[in-house]
């Protein structure tokens, strides 16, 4: 298994952050790692979406867990490995909200692909979380 986590605190209210997360079609507005996105349903477990990174191939993903106002998990199943990212809101220091992105790569090929693919997937997490926080704090 390969794993990585990044978090940041913000003064933005959890419901404001959640509003931006739960509007998948708007993700490219604040996430520079997404050139285009197509959603096949509501923001709920089981909904699939196709995310296209800049200069990249479209990736088919699925929401596997949604706890309104708290967390959602998306997953890309590549057969011999699965990339799973949990996006979570937690109480922070002095009334702040902590935004957490955690990615795990699991499955039979995880030890082979994780060390190369994982850092490529998660390299922009600090920038993505910072952009979300800036948007939510407006």
- Named CATH architecture: 2-Layer Sandwich
Distance between the termini: 38 Å
Strand order of the largest sheet: 1-7-6-5-4-3-2
Beta-sheet strand percentage? 35-45%
**What average pLDDT do the residues reach?**
96
Q: Quickly give the structural class.
A: alpha+beta
Low-confidence stretches: none
Q: Compute the number of structural domains.
A: 1
Counting H and I runs of at least 4 residues, what is the number of helices? Answer: 4
Report the CATH topology name. Alpha-D-Glucose-1,6-Bisphosphate, Chain A, domain 4
Q: What's the count of strands?
A: 7
Biggest beta sheet summary = 7 strands, antiparallel
Describe the overall structure.
This is Polyketide cyclase/dehydrase/lipid transport protein. Pfam families: Polyketide_cyc2. The structure is a single chain. The protein is an alpha+beta fold. The protein has one domain: START domain (Alpha-D-Glucose-1,6-Bisphosphate, Chain A, domain 4, 2-Layer Sandwich). It is built from four helices and seven strands, in the order βααββββββαα. A seven-stranded antiparallel beta sheet has the order 1-7-6-5-4-3-2, covered by helices on one side. The longest helix has 13 residues, at 110-122. It is globular and about 40 Å long.
């Amino acid at each position: 298994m390969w794993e990585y986590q990044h978090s940041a605190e913000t003064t933005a209210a959890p419901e404001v952050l959640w509003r931006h997360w739960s509007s998948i079609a708007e993700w490219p507005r604040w996430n520079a790692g997404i050139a285009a996105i197509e959603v096949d349903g509501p923001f709920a477990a089981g909904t699939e979406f196709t995310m296209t990174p800049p200069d990249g191939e479209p990736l088919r993903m699925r929401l596997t867990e949604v706890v309104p106002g708290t967390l959602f998990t998306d997953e890309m199943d590549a057969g011999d490995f699965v990339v799973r990212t949990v996006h979570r809101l937690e109480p922070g220091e002095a009334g702040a909200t902590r935004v957490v992105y955690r990615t795990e790569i699991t499955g039979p090929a995880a030890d082979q692909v994780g060390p190369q693919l994982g850092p490529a997937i998660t390299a922009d997490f600090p920038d993505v979380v910072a952009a979300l926080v800036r948007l939510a704090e407006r």
